[in-house]
Each structure stands twice: as C-alpha cells, then as structure tokens.
Protein: PAS domain S-box-containing protein
Amino acid sequence: MRQPVSIDFETIFRHAPVGMCVSYNRVIQASNRALDLMFGYEPGALAGQSFSVLYPSPDEFERTGARIVPIMNACGRYSDERIMKRANQELFWCHVSGSGLIPADAHAAGIWTFDDLSAKRPVTAELTPREREIAALLVEGKTSKLIARQVGLSPRTVEMHRAKLMRKFAAATSSELVNRLLGVTRQAPSPAPAAPRAEAAPA
Structure:
C-alpha cells in the first residue's frame, strides 16, 4: 500500500497556478510566483507593499477598499472583476477573490487570488478612474441605481458615465457596452471599399 504523500503547504502556495497572496491591513505579506509574474515584479518584491501598487490610481484603491468592507464583514468572502496595473504601468482586467481570516474586520487579514483576464478581455479604451470603477460594476450586471448606492454618486451621474463609456466603446445599447467590456464583441471594422465594376465589353 502506498504511503500518503506529506503535504507541504508552503510549496503548494509558491507554485500554485493562480496568483495568490496573504495580506494584513491591505499590505501584502507574501505572494507566490504566479502573482509576481502576473504583475511583473521580481520574486518577493511585493512583500511589504501596499495593495495600492496594484491599482491604477490611489482613488480606486481607496474606493474598492471601502466597497469590500460591508460585503466581507457580512459573508467573509469577496470577489469582483476590475482593471488593475502591472509594474510597467500596463492596465489589465483581473478577477480578484478573497477570504477574510478575522470575522467582522475585513482588511485585518486575508487570502487573495488573482486571475489575469487580459487574453480574452483586453483594455481597449483609455478610461478615467471613475469610468473604470463603473465599468467593473456594469460587468457584474448592476443597475445604475445600485451602482450609485455603492459608489456614492447620484443615478444621474452614473448614467452620465455610462453614456461616456458607450461613446468610447462605440456601443449603441447598454447590453452592447457590457459585451464590449467583456470582450464578447469588437467594434466592427470599417467596410473595405467596393471593387470597381468591370465595364461591359463592346458588342
């Protein structure tokens, strides 16, 4: 009978195929190889760094942190899809999931995973921090009223940002905008000019 293989959890963490890290008070304590590679950092360089280095702007870091708190405190878990930033300043879509380790204290300690979505969902337009935030919530299927409550804006202001996103992505409808954000559809290329018609040969 084969002996059970001993489980080395540190090795599993280091070599897991998905980006992972452990955080205390939104500071990365340890990250694995997949996370370092995903964000373009040398091995171990993220240890001791605030999560803010992974966000496109300080505002997005603060607002996302505030949005996480009530959800994490209520159920101990959180996940979303958002635009994040690599070390070379490249922006990319990322699926982020986390579990809190201390009940009712969302940011005290957590385990987080990151999945790079850029291969199927490239960032194709230059967006403001607020537009990136609203785009991420639209992808989740949230209405303007719900987004307004979550981000502390009026529904009319959210609609204004949605309209700007629709123009930037050349989307005619809200559902088309979401599909463009998800990478399901692309803006149709301009039609090629018609070939000149051959003239009829003389009889």
The first helix runs from residue 9 to 15. The chain has two domains: 17-123, 124-185. The first strand starts at residue 19 and ends at 24.
